[in-house]
Amino acid sequence: MSPRRKFDPGSDTDFWSLRLDSPISVRVLRRSRRRGFELVAILAAITAAAAIIFCTQVLTSHQKHWRTTIDDAAALGFVHSFMTEFTSPDPFHANDYTDRILTHATGDFAEQYRANQNQILVEVARSEPTTGTVLDAGVSRRNDDGSIDMLVVTKLASQSPDGKLRLERANRWVVTAKQEGDRQWKISSLIPMI
User: Fold this and answer.
1) What's the pTM value of the predicted model, to 2 decimals?
2) Side-chain-side CA neighbours of residue 145 (13 Å)
3) Which residue in 191, 194, 192 sits closest to 108, CA to CA?
4) For 150-172, what is the mean pLDDT?
5) Which CATH class is domain 49-193?
6) Domain range annotation of the chain
């Protein structure tokens, strides 16, 4: 067989037996290169689209987790501050104490506190100065309405009127904080645990 074999147009030809300078072999070679390039381009586009979708989902998940962490930290800071103030009544400034607590209240807690404000005021005025500290606080759960339930452990310390006896006790609370208006946290529920 001669390497200069000629093929009839339209006949079945073996690609590897074609001469590279023949018109038929150039067309077949160009067609196969074009198909290979198209296949590679399609696979690259699919891979790029999948990577973009995956990265978008990871970024969205990260942003959601970051926002939740920031909200939890802000709520914990607010509850820590509120519970320190709530467990530190000052009998010499009882009116100011009840007014400050009421400004941080909302929902059921505000209604209950407002209904019993006079009674609370009398009790605070009769009590000894007490110092409250928050020992620990943590997020218990996030509710569907955007509020956050937290478990808080406080320690109350007070002295007897003669200053000889120091009383300390620890309390546990379930506190529900909710954002209102301009993203300000308020207490919507305050339940002591027995």
Assistant:
1) 0.70
2) 9
3) 191
4) 86
5) alpha beta
6) 49-193
